Amino acid sequence: MDSFLKSVILESYGNEPHHKSNSYELADIFIKDGVIEKIDRTAISAFDISSEHFFVTSGFVNSHLHPNQLLDRRMLDELSITNLLSAMHIVQKKNDEDRYHQAIFVLLDVLKSGATGVYAIASRPEPVIRAFNDIGITGALNCVFNDVWEGKGNVPAQISLQDVEKKFSKYFESNCENLKIHIGSASILTASNELLTLFNDIAIRYNTRVNIHMSEGIESVEACRKNRGTTPVRLLENLGILNERWNLIHATTVDEEEIKLIARSGASVIHCPVSNAKTGVGIAPMRAFHKHGVNIAIGTDACSNNNTNNILNEAYFATLLHNAVHEDPLVFNEEIIFKWLTTNGLKIIDSPSTGKIEVGQRADLLL
Ligand SMILES: [Zn+2]
Question: What predicted TM-score, i.e. pTM, was given to this entire model?
């Protein structure tokens, strides 16, 4: 199908090396079969932008989303992370049809806030894969496997170690350009050292990635120290598996040495500031991660941990939060946050898109 966007204002956060950040162009964009085929550009002054013009920008990536958490929005407020996780395991008794319909609704909700890419997590992947395919949104899905439970409260579903790859290989049949299939666990509390090592082996053999909630508050870090003798990030390092294939969600409760370990390994960090604030697990040290060159993306987490799936709200909250923490209104400028929302997120979902509006790129655009 052919499309034509006439006279749109093109943002150019680094779209071309010679452009200064935040400059504008008037552009006609020709799209064929969902791919940008041609762009006619004319430089324009900000003073010449009128109400006739539309702004166009790259689609965003919501880099952490639980697509089956919707109906418990507003039902799990004022709970600690331990109590919330326990409640999440019992509040919604769902069958696969429920999961499919919730995933459809959540993915549409995500699109409304500008996310054309989604990094989802699910312990029952089939209905979510179906929803991704039916909507046609780009993304990755972390298929969750747990084999231990070292937390408190209700026990999440578990699987024996020898069944993991058989199940994963079945889900991996859905791996395609639009939807990448990743592997992971709910957290270190739900994955033995053997399972963590198996994830890494599978990630290498299938050329995919591992996604896991990591160091989400002091309680989970202390539990890891008690049960495994060290902190979660050091555990991965000691097992010899912390590398660029690992996408770590949260990382609120890490020390300076762990930040450097993550940076050196090439692993990515997914920042979910609203969820972290709501559950009171702390504020991730994003300025330090950024300073050390860690690839940072941003996500809304489960709707029950946030009460919305709005990625723009998340980005706005992140800028305010870190400005407040560091008493500096320019901790992260819009260009940095824009990269979290686009390029960096696309990288962790293994998208062939770069997040730049260029010929040959997917036309995942926002008007
Ligand atoms: Zn989560």
Answer: 0.91
